[in-house]
Fold this protein.
Amino acid sequence: MGYLPAGIWIIATGVIVYGLYVGASIFAPFALAVFLWLIIEGFARLMQERLTKMPRWLAQTSAVLIVLGATLTVILIFIDGLNEFAQNASAYEARINDVLTDIYAKLNIHTVAPPDLSSMLFNMQNTKFVQPILDSVQGLASSFVLILIYIAFLFLAEKSWPTKLDYIFPETKARQQAREVGQQVRKSMEEYLWVQTVISGIITVITYITLLILGLDNALFWAFVVFFLNYIPTIGSIVAAFLPGLFALAQPEWPAYMPADATLNAVIVLIAVSVWQFTIGNFIQPRMMGESLNLSALVVLVSLAVWGAIWGIPGMFLSAPLTVLMMILFAQIPGAHWLAILLSADGRPIKKQPTNVTNTDVAEQGVQ
């Protein structure tokens, strides 16, 4: 069946993973640029389909401006939210210290004094845990300009790709197969990214309205935190549900119609956000996602851990689409086809081909 020796696969995998880890500052921004470029390209094609007379250059320019405008809007929202937290930091800290004192009193702990927020956050152990996360966020922010440069050059290089493909694959049959694989990769990536964006947008709007009704401070900020965390498979939605609830414990004042107990309010916020996450994530998202993410649940979780260890936060955001890309490419290599089958959810890493593809072509492409 064309299996490569296990030793070769282990060595090759180790070299590739080490190269990706060492070159994270280069490869991670480029990967983010590619996926943003796919979103922009998909948006431009959508506008051309709806407005048939719109030139391609105008559609691409409009898509770029809309995406950049949305990005700047989100950045301003986060800056405004952080400023609001800074202005009310003393009130939040006092509230958390009161909560800690109440917890120690309810547990009847009198042998040691209750800790305060400052000593809990800025001790040596927490600093070692939080510092890598802060470094990753800072690195991602500093790479923003580099990502924009990558996107610009991707647009410039787009026109020359068909010609390069002709030179790489001089035989017509091989060239056609390469184009079909490229189209499948592009379609799978675009479907996943678009569906995930729409789903995250729906959850964000509903979450914002819910938090606004409940009276949580800085509701818009937390809604956008939920939006971005939903791009991280499995764990992201869980964290997105818990963060507003944890913050609710620190909120000193609530609307008159909410209970007087801040702990009960935090539970209400947690349940409200979790209900939307569970309902949309388990009933709406699978129907919209379709076959664009044909990965088993175990593979999604493992890929999240692996890509997170290699590229940090960017790797966690891109873990699912990157693993789908690997599955599609493995399916084209006879010796690695078994890996594609293991990564897939249904044992069929390649989607069913269109009816105009002959049985011979299908067999040669390794479609089961």
